[in-house]
Structures are given as structure tokens and as C-alpha cells.
């Protein structure tokens, strides 16, 4: 498992772009985790699945609600990463009203979750391989803080814990 002080593994993640801009068409766009975190402070939190009970009722909404506090504490971007496709993550983001607060990032094949060593097998529950629940602070590509919840729990990956680590 990745630990504090490690370089964030480079993986390709996807984000659905709703509005076209110069050089960026509408639709899923891939990016390198290393390139996108270079020179930035990023909070990345991972959830087992979009539209799942704890993820939708508590985890993701708590980051949407505290996004301005995280930005005031020096965070450049907030990512919600899940083993879902970019279309699902975009729909979930709209449902949560996360636009311009939390970037809804797709790890469709669990490559990022595998690279950081935080997968869990939920095949028996019909979900396949998913991410464990985690939260991290990444500074210029280096993991400075990493919190991982025990399976089925939501205790240490909340934004209050991350805000405390930033202070």
C-alpha cells in the first residue's frame, strides 16, 4: 500500500467535461495523476461507488459542503475518485451539485486504486473490484497525508480530519 511520503503513482484517470473549451472537447478526458498534481495541493478522496448509500449520503456531500474551507486552507483541487466510468461520475456530480467544488474523477478499471494498493473485492455484493474508502493530501505529486477507513466504515476520511491535517 502507498504510504505518506511516497510519490503518487502515475495513473490515467478520466473526468467528464461538460463544456467545450479550447483544446478540450465535451466528453470523457483522460489525464495523468502526476501531471495534474504537479505544483499543486490536491485532496483526493476515494469511495467504493457512485450513488452508493454512505458515499452519496455522507462522504461526497461532506466534501462538497466544505470545499470552500479546503480551498481557504490552500487546496487547489478536490477530487472524488471512484471505480466507475466518467459518465456515471458526471451524473453523480450533477446530482450532488458538486460542479466547481469537487472534481468527479473516474477510475473505471481500478488502475489507480490498484496502483495505490487500496482495492477491495466486492464481487460477492455484485460490484466487482472497487476502491477502499480513503482520503489523501497530495503536494506536488507527493502523498503528505493518507487516511484509510476500515471496510464498511466512514470515520477518518472525512473533510474535518483532512482540514485538521492541513492546519
TrEMBL record:
Enzyme class: oxidoreductase
Catalytic activity: a hydroperoxide + 2 glutathione = an alcohol + glutathione disulfide + H2O
EC number(s) per entry: 1.11.1.27
Homology family: Belongs to the peroxiredoxin family. Prx5 subfamily.
Coiled-coil features, chain-numbered ranges: none
Swiss-Prot/TrEMBL GO biological process terms: cell redox homeostasis; cellular response to oxidative stress; hydrogen peroxide catabolic process
Database matches in Pfam families: Redoxin
Any one GO molecular-function label of the UniProt entry: thioredoxin peroxidase activity
GO cellular component term of the entry, any: cytoplasm
The keyword Oxidoreductase is assigned to this record: yes
Originating species: Caballeronia novacaledonica
Function noted in UniProt: Thiol-specific peroxidase that catalyzes the reduction of hydrogen peroxide and organic hydroperoxides to water and alcohols, respectively. Plays a role in cell protection against oxidative stress by detoxifying peroxides.
Protein name (Swiss-Prot/TrEMBL): Glutathione-dependent peroxiredoxin
Active site: 55
Domain Thioredoxin: 2-167
SUPFAM superfamilies found in the cross-reference section: Thioredoxin-like
Keyword terms, alphabetized: Antioxidant, Oxidoreductase, Peroxidase, Redox-active center
Amino acid at each position: 500500500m502507498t504510504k505518506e511520503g511516497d510519490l503518487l503513482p502515475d495513473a490515467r484517470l478520466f473526468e467528464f467535461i461538460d463544456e467545450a473549451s479550447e483544446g478540450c472537447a465535451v466528453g470523457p478526458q483522460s489525464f495523468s495523476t502526476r501531471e495534474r498534481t504537479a505544483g499543486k495541493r490536491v485532496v483526493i478522496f476515494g469511495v467504493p461507488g457512485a450513488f452508493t448509500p454512505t458515499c452519496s449520503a455522507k462522504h461526497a456531500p461532506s466534501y462538497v459542503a466544505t470545499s470552500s474551507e479546503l480551498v481557504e486552507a490552500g487546496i487547489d483541487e478536490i477530487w472524488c475518485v471512484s471505480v466507475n466510468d466518467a459518465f456515471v461520475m458526471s451524473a453523480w456530480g450533477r446530482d450532488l451539485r458538486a460542479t466547481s467544488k469537487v472534481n468527479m474523477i473516474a477510475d473505471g478499471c481500478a488502475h489507480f486504486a490498484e496502483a495505490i494498493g487500496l482495492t477491495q473485492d466486492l464481487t460477492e455484493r455484485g460490484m466487482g473490484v472497487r476502491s477502499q474508502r480513503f482520503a489523501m493530501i497530495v503536494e506536488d505529486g507527493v502523498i503528505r497525508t493518507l487516511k484509510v477507513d476500515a471496510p464498511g466504515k466512514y470515520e477518518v476520511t472525512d473533510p474535518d480530519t483532512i482540514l485538521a491535517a492541513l492546519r
